[in-house]
Amino acid sequence: MTTSHAVVATPETIALAAAHLRAGDLVAFPTETVYGLGANALDAAAVEKIFIAKRRPRSSPLIVHIADAQDARKVVRLWPNAAELLARHFWPGPLTMVLPKSNAIPAIVSGDLDTVGVRLPEHPVARALIRAAGVPLAAPSANEFMQLSPTAASHVARSLAGRVAMILDGGNSDAGIESTVVSISAEGHVELLRPGAVRREQIERVLGTAVADAHWDKQGSAPSPGMHERHYAPHTPLRLVSRQSPLPDGAGALISLGTARPNLPNDLTEIVLPAYPEAYARGLYAALHSVDHPDHAWIALEPPPQQPAWEAVNDRLRRAASP
Ligand code: AMP
Ligand code: MG
């Protein structure tokens, strides 16, 4: 049985969703980053349904979500001091830690890697759902592979209609972009796999050391499989266009930074996002969803400055605009 409609999260609907998860079915649920598409992380057959629903390649590992920090030990084999330190500072919250995985986690969750990403989300509905299910939840973003992440239940309903048992509506995602992903070695060395809602500089302050980007290994395999150059993209071609540059011809929409662009044609749709990284991230995907429309031949977006505070937003914009 599948659905195309979201239901408001209540104790009753959360209990029903938890029963679906225990029965091996998929449930979309809100988190503070973006909406997730969850399955019982301990059940390989349930996790397989995620890859089918999203049309996601098996090589792209999933993040496992827990509701209580002590449950991390059931998911990972090692818990270096750096993990403890980062968990204390950033959990619950938008930080994913990739660590050597425990045997409880089936290979399909982690794309056959010996490591697994684990996160304790802050959203109360996410935590209530994980607790009610009584198992960790493997959950990527609740959208088709490579496409825009959902920050509202309506976005999920549009992209995964008929492919999930339930969609829980818990309001708009607060952070609005995906979690920061770090890898932590057995020796406790921390590297950045994906910039996200927790800034690199916040992590560096807690650890007292610089955090570099993860490097490619000698075999040439990517440090974080699943991080494709094109990702998080609308269907409509997205171009990054500075305020000084002319807009493309034809029908399209403009996403401006901070203030409206003067002298625009009357029939052009413009959305102005705030010139503050957190506020911008919160509104970005919803803005892209709202102008990603067959009537538009292009979406032009005025890029934010190349500054550390904008690292995660600029990463997503580069991928979304990648051909
Ligand atoms: P998402 O699709 O937003 O859930 O993000 C999951 C991403 O986290 C994957 O595509 C990888 O880039 C990264 N990731 C998750 N698990 C691992 C892992 N074990 N090793 C490296 N990267 C991982
Ligand atoms: Mg995703």
Average per-residue pLDDT, rounded, comes to 95
Morphology: globular
Helical fraction:
25-40%
- Quickly count the domains: 2
Could you give the count of β-strands?
Answer: 14
Structural class: alpha/beta
CATH topology of the largest domain: DHBP synthase
CATH class wording of the largest domain: Alpha Beta
Associated small molecules: adenosine monophosphate, magnesium ion
Describe the fold and architecture.
The chain has 323 residues and is α/β, with parallel strands linked by helices. It folds into two domains: 207 residues, DHBP synthase (Alpha-Beta Complex); 83 residues, no CATH class. Helix content is 27%, strand content 18%. The chain contains nine helices and 14 strands. The strands form two sheets. The chain has a ten-stranded mixed β-sheet with strand order 1-8-2-3-7-4-6-5-9-10, sandwiched between helices. It has a four-stranded parallel β-sheet with strand order 11-14-12-13, covered by helices on one side. A hairpin with a 6-residue loop joins strand 2 and strand 3. Helix 1 crosses helix 5. It is globular, with a radius of gyration of 19 Å. The structure holds adenosine monophosphate and magnesium ion. Magnesium ion binds next to loops.
Search tags:
DHBP synthase, 18% strand, globular, 9 helices, 2 domains, binds magnesium ion, 323 residues, binds adenosine monophosphate, alpha/beta
